[in-house]
Amino acid sequence: MASLISCPHCGLRPKEEFSIKGDASLTRPAPNAGPEAWYDYVYLRDNPKGRHKEYWHHSSGCRRWLVVERDTVTHAAYEVSDAALAKLGGQA
After folding, report:
1. Averaged over 40-61, what is the pLDDT?
2. 7: which strand partners?
3. Which residue stretches, if any, does this entry annotate as coiled coil (predicted)?
4. CB–CB of 21/57 below 8 Å?
5. Which residues contact 60 (CB under 8 A, 6 or more apart)?
6. pTM of the prediction?
């Protein structure tokens, strides 16, 4: 049985329609931040075990950016929200 992701715009869809794009908890440095801050932002990543929020792109569906909370061990998806709403202070 295929794993399903609940897209807030398209409903339940197979996970193969999505692309995982990375950690949704990172904060982009200010444009005038020093080289060390930019190096850390671009190259250094944690490898968390357990629940973690990631940016996913519904590339074969509505083409919206989503924030998906999933377990990195079991790959179970829990919460899914629109990334634009999360950025505006909605759920993320």
Report:
1. 94
2. 11
3. none
4. yes
5. 16, 17, 18
6. 0.82
